[in-house]
């Protein structure tokens, strides 16, 4: 009789148990990694939309409005689709003859939310590319992991940058004031 090749039931059970323990250690880290990458993708898409609007204001020499829309009317819910357009009469809605330059839906999933400092339902870039009275901070919050949340900061000159939501000591930056990620 020859020797049989294969694993015993005990060897398979031990290997499965070890694999299960390793997976339980790795999965929480994987979830955190997914949150970070998802939030980073949302931040990049949002920043590109802001830069697109500023570029077209500079290129066309006219004011360009950017706002989240509900139908054709600007709303203050920045999780809605965002429209970039020439708002010649500055009424924060797309009228006949006003060109829509971009309609974008930032891929905010059920795990993220965008909040904005200050008031107002739109941003306007003037012909110089300046954020016309609209310097503001947005926070793209990861609902489950605030360590992954990011700020998008727009200054009066129309320049946009991002940084983390939490400082090194784990608290939101004081400059955010009442702007906070919702608690889960």
Automatic annotation (TrEMBL):
Its main location: membrane. GO terms for biological process: protein secretion by the type II secretion system. It is a single-pass membrane protein. The keyword Transmembrane helix applies. One of its GO terms (cellular component) is type II protein secretion system complex. Gene3D superfamilies: minor pseudopilin epsh domain (3.55.40.10). Pfam families: GspH, N_methyl. InterPro entries: N_methyl_site, Pilin-like, T2SS_GspH. Keywords: Cell inner membrane, Cell membrane, Membrane, Methylation, Transmembrane, Transmembrane helix. PROSITE patterns: PROKAR_NTER_METHYL (PS00409). SUPFAM superfamilies: Pili subunits. Belongs to the GSP H family. NCBIfam families: IV_pilin_GFxxxE. This is Type II secretion system protein H. It comes from Bermanella marisrubri. The lineage of its organism: Bacteria, Pseudomonadati, Pseudomonadota, Gammaproteobacteria, Oceanospirillales.
């Amino acid at each position: 009789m020859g020797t049989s090749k294969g694993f015993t039931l005990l060897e398979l059970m031990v290997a499965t148990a070890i694999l299960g323990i390793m997976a339980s250690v790795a999965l929480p880290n994987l979830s955190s990694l997914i949150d970070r990458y998802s939030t980073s993708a949302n931040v990049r898409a949002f920043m590109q939309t802001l830069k697109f609007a500023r570029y077209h204001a500079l290129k066309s020499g006219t004011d360009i409005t950017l706002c989240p829309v509900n139908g054709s009317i600007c709303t203050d819910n920045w999780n809605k689709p965002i429209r970039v357009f020439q708002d010649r009469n500055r009424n924060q809605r797309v009228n006949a003859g006003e060109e829509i330059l971009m309609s974008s839906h930032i891929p905010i999933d059920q795990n993220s939310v965008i909040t904005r400092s200050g008031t107002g339902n739109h941003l306007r870039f003037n012909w110089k590319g300046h954020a016309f009275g609209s310097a503001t901070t947005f926070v793209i919050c990861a609902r489950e992991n605030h360590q992954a949340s990011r700020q998008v900061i727009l200054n009066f000159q129309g320049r946009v940058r991002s940084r983390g939501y939490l400082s090194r000591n784990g608290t939101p930056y004081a400059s955010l004031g009442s702007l906070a990620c919702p608690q889960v």
